[in-house]
Amino acid sequence: MKLRDIVRAADDGLFWRSLPEMAPAEVGYAAGVSAMYAGAAGDALIVAGGANFPGVPVAEGGEKTFYDGILLLRGGVWSQAGRLPAPAAYGDGLVLAGGANTSGALCSVVKLRPKGEKIVAAELSALPCAIEQAAGAAVGRKLYLAGGIANGTPSAALYMLDTRAAKPRWQVLAPVPEA
């Protein structure tokens, strides 16, 4: 599939608009940050964490830096809204499932939600293994996490967490077609 097959003309209802420039959240952000967690909740856009090589480029042996800042865009204004429990990147969405930091891949799952001008973080059931660079989706009150790198190996695993269960735990579903 090509990009032209996905993006339709403006008369199909798709349009682009620029957001206000994000102020640096932490020292090192000005170098550009990748792999941030991002998503929308109500009328707010939340971005958190991320990683980069702010000093020496990776090609020259630089060390990757991970961030824990949480930023909130509401009403056209960016604000500092809190901190992740630990610096992280390479996860997915407002439910931060897995990801990685300087210690390696994570099995933690954190749910972020706006409360006034701040972000409230709540821990959810941990993943059954450490996962980074996976794809995530929410369907109703069920969370899905597919693929990525699990315990250091490319994975085709598919996990589901039913947040309405009496004791929510990640369940292993049939794997996706390939890692």
Question: Brief description of this entry?
Answer:
2% of the residues lie in helices and 40% in strands. With 179 residues, it is mainly β.
SSE series: HEEEEEEEEEEEEEEEEEE
- Range of strand content: 35-45%
- Please give the oligomerization state of what you see: single chain
Cα gyration radius (Å): 17 Å
Q: With helices defined by DSSP (H or I, 4 residues minimum), what is the helix count?
A: 1
What is the residue-mean pLDDT, rounded to a whole number? 85
Shape: globular
Main β-sheet, spatial strand arrangement = 1-2-5-6
Task: List low-pLDDT spans.
Answer: 6-10
| Category by helix and strand content | mainly beta
Reported for the largest beta sheet, the result is: 4 strands, antiparallel
DSSP strand count: 18
| Helical residues, percent | under 10%
N- and C-termini, Cα separation: 19 Å
Describe this structure in words.
The protein has 179 residues and is mainly beta. Helix content is 2%, strand content 40%. It contains 1 helix and 18 strands. The strands form 6 sheets. Strands 1-2-5-6 form a 4-stranded antiparallel beta sheet, with no helix packed on it. It has a 4-stranded antiparallel beta sheet with strand order 13-14-17-18, with no helix packed on it. Strand 17 and strand 18 (171-173) form a beta hairpin. The protein is globular, with a radius of gyration of 17 Å. The model is unreliable at 6-10 (pLDDT under 50).
Write the layout of secondary structure elements.
Elements: H1 3-6, E1 37-41, E2 44-48, E3 51-52, E4 65-66, E5 69-74, E6 77-83, E7 95-97, E8 100-101, E9 104-105, E10 109-115, E11 118-124, E12 131-132, E13 135-139, E14 142-146, E15 149-150, E16 153-154, E17 158-162, E18 171-173
